Structures are given as structure tokens and as C-alpha cells.
Amino acid sequence: MKHTIDATNKKIGRIASEAASLLMGKKTPAYRRDRPSGIRVSIVNCSKADINEKKKQGKIYVTFTGFRGGIYDESLGHLITRKGASEAFRLAVYRMLPSNSLRKEMMKNLETKE
């Protein structure tokens, strides 16, 4: 089963929460927490999403390498210029999925397009 979500003039969080619930299979009658749903989700028109300037400057993504001094932070605006708007959607959906062994498999079923 395949779902397509249009991101034109919509907020990142609204689209990401809808995509996360579809990837988990919560809207199917055969929903089980311990099994992957197998549903493919495609998010189109990521670059046309409604992201205001305050969010682009204020939202900070922090990563840690595990070594001393290895904390890196990056704003949403810099992430969009570096990797594109679709990467912001991928990160939002990734962080809304449960952090278990199925998250990697669910993320394989997510497709984002500019």
C-alpha cells in the first residue's frame, strides 16, 4: 500500500506526524506494534512547505560524535541550504517514530521529494 502526502503550504510537524502514524500502520485494522506495516509513504513538494524565518533561525539540530568536543549544532535554515528541505522532513519523521529496532525498517519505506 502506498500513500502520498502533499507538503504544499503545510507545516513540517503536521506532515511528519501524519507520515509517522502511516509508517507505523496505526490507521490499518491489522495494526501490531511488534511488526512493520509495510506501508510506503511519499512526501512530495517538500520545498513548498510553510516554514517561517523564525523557525529557520531558531530550530537547532544537535549531533554528538561520542568524542570530547564532538558536539555540532546546525540551524534548520543551514540544513535546508546544505541538504535540501526533504532532509528536514526525514529528520522530523525519524524523531517521531518509536526508537526501537523497527525504526530503521520503517524509514526505508519513507520517500521525500523536493
Would you give an account of this structure?
The protein is α/β, with parallel strands linked by helices and 114 residues long. The protein is 39% helix and 20% strand. The chain is globular, with a radius of gyration of 15 Å.
Q: Which superfamily, in CATH terms, is the homologous superfamily of the domain at 2-50 and 84-112?
A: Ribosomal protein L13
Q: Write down the CATH class of the domain at 2-50 and 84-112.
A: Alpha Beta
Specify the helix fraction band. 25-40%
> What structural class results from the helix and strand content?
alpha/beta
Low-confidence stretches: none
| Helix run count | 5
Feature tags:
114 residues, Ribosomal Protein L13p, Chain: A, globular, two-stranded antiparallel ribbon, 5 strands, single chain, three-stranded parallel sheet, 39% helix, alpha/beta
Topology:
Layout: E1 2-6, H1 12-24, E2 40-44, H2 53-58, E3 60-64, E4 71-75, H3 76-83, H4 85-96, H5 103-107, E5 110-112
Parallel strand pairs: 1-2, 2-5
Antiparallel strand pairs: 3-4
In short:
It contains five helices and five strands, in the order βαβαββαααβ. It has 114 residues and is of the alpha/beta class.
